[in-house]
Amino acid sequence: MTPVIAIGISIVAVTGANFGAKKFKNINLIFNQGIKLGFVIVIGMAVAIFLLAPYISYLFAYSPESAGIRDVLTDFLRVTSLFYLVLPIGISASSIFQGLGKGLHSLALSLIRVFFLEVFFSFLFAIVLGFGQYGAWWGLVTGNAVGACISLIWAKLYLRKFNKVKTVL
Question: By the 8 A CB rule, do 105 and 153 touch?
Fold first, then answer.
């Protein structure tokens, strides 16, 4: 997750510089490239975590006393590895808004994703549908995915207005 956050921090700076220079056409390119680069990184991370989950869980549950949680920890790592797949969208959208001086948009996206969608889906899957802890994990993944879709749509609609503005050379 740290590399994707680093990309997001870079997006803030590069977007701000292009916005200040009135190179508005570049902002959409920055957004798209941030998502693409993020995907390359998180796909590798997610596949590695998914495949290495039994070995990673062994590192944290190697003693006879903790061996009982090893299988559950492996399942947790595998389910949450899917969480990473949509992170570049949400982080890139939030970063674009920050770079454009629209920090409240960024905050709103984070609040919607974390405090509404992830909590809602975790509660729905774990409690209402009775899937227990697995439902809570899938709720995090689902909430993050839905939040990423909202972030993508919101950012694309907002960036549309910059496509109508002529770029200053």
Answer: no
Q: In 33-128, at which residue ranges do the beta strands (DSSP E only) sit?
A: none
Tell me how many domains the chain contains.
1
| 104-147 pLDDT tens trace | 999 999 999 989 999 999 999 999 999 999 999 999 999 999 99
Is 169 inside any structural domain? no
pLDDT tens, 58-117?
A: 999 888 888 889 999 999 999 999 999 999 999 999 999 999 999 999 999 999 998 999
Whole-number CA gyration radius for the chain: 19
Q: How many Cβ atoms are within 10 Å of 85's Cβ, its own excluded?
A: 19
What's this model's pTM, rounded to 2 decimal places?
0.88
8: CB partners within 8 A, 6+ apart: 34, 91, 92, 94, 95
Amino acid type, 76: F
In this structure, the chain runs to a length of 169
Domain of residue 63 covers 2-163
Residue 93, domain member (yes or no)? yes
**Two tokens, residue 46:** 């997610």
Torsion angle, alpha carbons of 34, 40, 44, 45, to 10: 0
The CA distance from 164 to 153, in Å, is 18
